[in-house]
Amino acid sequence: DRFRSRRRASIAPLPALRLNSREMLASDFDTHSLASNQASITSVNSLASLLREKMQAFPQLIRKKKRETKDYKIKVFVIMMFFIIIFLIGYAYVAYHHQVLTRSYFQKLKFNSKDRIFRILSHEDKEVIMGHLGVTLDSDTAPFHCLENQRRADGSVCIEWNGIARLHLNFEDKQVFRCYTLQWQALRPGLLPTDCYELKRDNGLWFGGGITKGQEWSLSYANFDFKPYASGDHKVHQFGNAVKRYFINSIGVAMQVSERTPLQLGINRTENQFCLRAANDDFTFVNRLTPLPQLDYKICTTEDMRSLHMLMTQQSLWDGLTEQDISELHSLLEEPVWRIPNQEQRDHLNESVICDYSENAIAMGLGHIVINEFWQENIGDFTVDRARFPTLKDTIDVLHRRGFKVVFTIQPFISTDSPNFKDAVARKLLIYERYSERSIPALTRYKSSSSAGVLDITNNASVPWLLEKLQRLKDEYGVKSFYLDLGTGYNLPHYYQCRQPLDNPDMYARMLTSSLESAGLMAVSTASVVPKPPTFLSTPPANATWAGLRETLAAVLNYGVIGYPFVLAGAIGGDYLLERPLTKMISFYSLGQPPLPDAELFIRWLQLATFLPAMQFSHLPDEYHSELVTRVAQELKEVRQTVVIALLKKYLSPSMNEGLPLVRPLWMLDPHDPACLIVSDEFSVGEELIVAPILDAGLEEREVYLPQGVWKDGIDGSLRKGSRWMHGYRVPKDKIAYFRKMPDNTRF
């Protein structure tokens, strides 16, 4: 009680309570409660101590685990950094050695001499072409700079793979254009210098090569193994009747291969490769101009595909032209070519056939009347067959008074049945059999002649002999010009040998065409260089089918791309008719005029020919006795006279000066428009007329693409905005879709 405070003393004692079946007084309860409280305090203190120990140990445990986790992360980080450092060191090592090996030998050109990767950069240092040079070299062969006596004084770089091959690189700066010359020399037998470039890059397409066996619009769509690059029959051989060693890519890269290179071309779409190879063979490049194959070509680049094309094909065709030549050229643009229908046998051709045909042709206009080789008894006679043409001079005089010009077909082949064959053998004017010591003439087969010799153009006596006979024909019969039917390079005898070696078979046609320019040539059947105007290049004979129609357009456009501005398409309606595929060259057959084609095919063919540089007829519209055919022919005649001829003459000068064709693919209008690159069934006349012909049977509508600008529809006269497609454009059977370009400020 004495420990009670005053407050506790003022409180009444606690009542009695029962605790554990025992009654306790207040005093007892207080005593027990105090002991119990003391025990509880001790327990709490113990528990608190335990908790405090645990709490103190817990952070240490956490910190220990954190240290273990942190140690693990540090180890992982160190390992990763180790590998990264190793990778960077390795990459730096490889990059350093690659940089050491890759040199900018010339402006915008990089070449790694170890792996032979060749790159050309644009003005913005963007890679425009990449190639793998020396594909046939051993990959582990190390190159070195050529010895002093192997270097050239023209500034070129010379690199040699010891005893294997030697490469010369040179550069020519033409300001906007940059050209690089590459020349491989094989140094050991069996090595074929081969360079491969990307076939497709940034949607760029390769053009050139003329027409190919598959009739591809672009070389980027072709796929064939290495083939000799020479003129041939594209139905049998890889390339067509006209070639030129020029190839251009839409991204602004062009290649030109030397004529002295035994060029083989290969395209592999699977590996995305466009390859050039130098390789001799037993026919095309049998005359080895160098002891071992040599690949020599030039690459030029610029930002504009059109300008680059003009640079690579630029030539002045005006040189040496007379007023008579220009008048003849205009005549071929303005007036049709009339080819007298030929039959398989020469007896079917006589003066009456010629007179009757000319009378029927007058309704469509005047022009050149071409008489096939059957004006002579045998190929190579170079004299008129008087049994069938007793008064041919009078007949020709009548034709001249009517306004026609008469053209004789001539050939360098001389039939063994011709009297001239014996004379030519005696004078040694013919190509002779290889290894025969110029004693045995080499024979070949051509059209109606199953056995014929070939004039040796490298013999200085051959050309005067032939020119004398042609001049006699002109003097006696008043013949104005000749159609030179050369066949192709593959029409030469297989084991041919000339007095002077030819670079390749196409050199024969080039030399003969040049030698006969003074005699007057209206057209030639094959070429490897542009013939001097007014001579046109003929397209290959076309089958009288819808496929033949499509092939005609492809030939005209592709020959224009490689630099032939004046192209004479085959006869409207086709040159022959064969339902089965050919296994031999068409020139091995003496094929007559095809039967009258289907009226729809003839109309669509006539519509296309109306817009080409020259028109050629064999069948006449009157033969159909159809009001529709006659009306369409007259309407198209008016379109050509009022619209087309004026444009052809307007763009004649640019074609003569710059090598641009009169009839052009759309990409020549706008090379930066991707749609223009892929359109293969439209074309332009100059830069002011777009033509979209129908090329398939039964169609009266098509897709039409117009380049940028404003265009006037030739069918309904409406205005059309360019840079867009027109889907489902209606083209009735008697119409052809064409569009004239209007001034840029034209308003709708």
How much strand content do the residues show?
15-25%
CATH T-level topology of the domain at 109-313: Immunoglobulin-like
Describe the main β-sheet briefly.
8 strands, antiparallel
Count of individual beta strands: 39
- The mean pLDDT is 86
Question: What is the approximate shape?
Answer: globular
- Structural class assignment: alpha+beta
Helix fraction, binned, reads: 25-40%
Protein name: Glycoside hydrolase family 31 N-terminal domain-containing protein
Keywords: Glycosidase, Hydrolase, Membrane, Signal, Transmembrane, Transmembrane helix
Domain Glycoside hydrolase family 31 TIM barrel: 355-495, 543-628
InterPro entries: Alpha-glycosidase_related, GH, Glyco_hydro_31_C, Glyco_hydro_31_TIM, Glyco_hydro_b
Account of the protein in words:
Among the domains are: 74-103; 109-313, Immunoglobulin-like (Sandwich), CATH 2.60.40. The chain is built from 14 helices and 39 strands. The chain has an eight-stranded antiparallel sheet with strand order 3-4-5-6-11-17-16-13. A hairpin with a 3-residue loop joins strand 8 (157-161) and strand 9 (165-174). The chain is globular and about 145 Å long. This is Glycoside hydrolase family 31 N-terminal domain-containing protein.
Summarize the structure.
Pfam families: Glyco_hydro_31_2nd, Glyco_hydro_31_3rd. This protein has 748 residues and is α+β, with helices and mostly antiparallel strands.
